Amino acid sequence: MKNEEIQLIKDTFDYDGITGLLYRKKSFHKRYIGWTAGAVNGRGYMLVRIGSKKYSVHRLAWIISTGSNPIEIDHINHDKKDNRLVNLREVNRTTQMKNRKKNSNNTTGSNGVGIGNGGYIAYTSVNGERFHIGTFDTKEEAVAARQSADKAFDYHKNHGQKLEP
């Protein structure tokens, strides 16, 4: 993102880091000045438009607050509409993947634990590569093994949790 684009963003919006809301300072329609900005897209993220270009509210919040435009921004509590500064952090892709909510197709209710081979299989991913931790007789043993791996590989404490309302 170029400096001119960052300046346009700062000239167009005010950001309240405590509430996570973006307010319009400029608008094509003057009546919208002072209004909160953003609408939820199909993936659950808040978006705003400047001219014909769409921007994620969490990205604009970060840019306005810090002046930097990172490649990845993590919503710590997994709520894509919660754009408070305390809920956002600049991360790389590897760290971002270590704070994902539980997949919707999860059948065991535990992250990184599946059923197969006559037992419960625990697995993890490190740097995009999937690793088999082991096969266990009980779900509890598999969950404990996966939790140990999460700690060993520095996964975020919210990883695998379903924290969105």
**Gross geometry:** elongated
Instruction: Please give the number of β-strands.
Output: 11
Structural class: alpha+beta
Question: Oligomeric status of the shown chains?
Answer: single chain
Q: Give the radius of gyration.
A: 20 Å
Strands in their spatial order, largest beta sheet = 1-2-3
Fold-level CATH name of the largest domain: Homing Intron 3 (I-Ppo) Encoded Endonuclease, Chain A
Identify the notable features of this structure and list them briefly.
165 residues; alpha+beta; Homing Intron 3 (I-Ppo) Encoded Endonuclease, Chain A; 2 domains; three-stranded antiparallel β-sheet; 4 helices; 24% helix
In a few lines, what is going on in this structure?
This protein is α+β, with helices and mostly antiparallel strands and 165 residues long.
How are the elements arranged and paired?
Layout: H1 3-12, E1 13-16, E2 21-24, E3 36-37, E4 39-40, E5 46-50, E6 53-56, H2 57-66, E7 72-75, E8 88-91, H3 93-97, E9 113-116, E10 119-126, E11 129-136, H4 139-152
Antiparallel strand pairs: 1-2, 2-3, 4-5, 5-6, 7-8, 9-10, 10-11
